[in-house]
Amino acid sequence: MDDRLLQSFMTVAECGSFTIAADRLSITQSALSRQIQSVEQTLGVELFERIGKKIRVSPEGEALRARINEVLIATKNLRLSAEELKKGEAGVLKVGACSQLIERYFPDFLREWQDEHPRVDIRLEEGGGADLDAKLMSGVVQLTINASSYARTPDVEARPLCHLAVLAIGAAERIGRSGAPIDIADVCSHPLLLLNRRHVSREMFDAACRLAGLEPRVALESGSPHTVFSMAIGNVGVAVLPSSIRALKTDLTVRPIAIDGRPVEFEISAIWSRSTPLPAYGRRFVDALAAHIAREQDQGSGTAAVA
Prior knowledge:
The protein is α/β, with parallel strands linked by helices.
């Protein structure tokens, strides 16, 4: 049913007069009468009782009045949502990222984003580097926050967000108290507590070990940064973790790992497929996330501060 006909009923019911309602709707009284008759025929009930020249809403009309108002509100909201979708102001954005990046950057950022963009539904998928790349290529997610090494194909577009260092975290008796870079050979002289190979920081550490001709002694391999960190607190070995790990207050020393004086680090980018371009709100999401990460790093919180 045309919602304009329903609006005509609501206007007559509010005005209590066909003459006043017709004037408000800028149509003739006869045209308004035909509209009301059309609604009554469609619904199969009389909506008004006619008493001489006066009218009043019938019991059936009163019973349907609230429902009709709900339909009009729902129709208005539907049109608004459709307009926002066309303009790129509303929709769903599926984002993939590793657990450390989600934990480090997303809690505060997402709360602010959702306050400002309530009609954009953000859905997060956790995964490692290769997992995220596969999810992007298969369309499970529209956007990944992943190592820039996964953006080196013509199938994707990317925006760099930040650089993350690979850190050695351990007791002072193992790696000293200085926060200065530590050579990878010194790190590998200890039992190592490592993330599994789903994590880009592990891939970078393994590559640096191969480049230096080192064979690390692995005391623990885990998918959980918190497990690795807890074992370092217990002095089981030296943890190797990315600088995106959330700060924890302990007595452990944190040192960037270096090889031949150069830091072992990697770049993180927002990556999306060229075959399914990001909607306008997706690009705004990337811009806002980049600004949020930049602010955090400017404040000195982009690197784990374990003290």
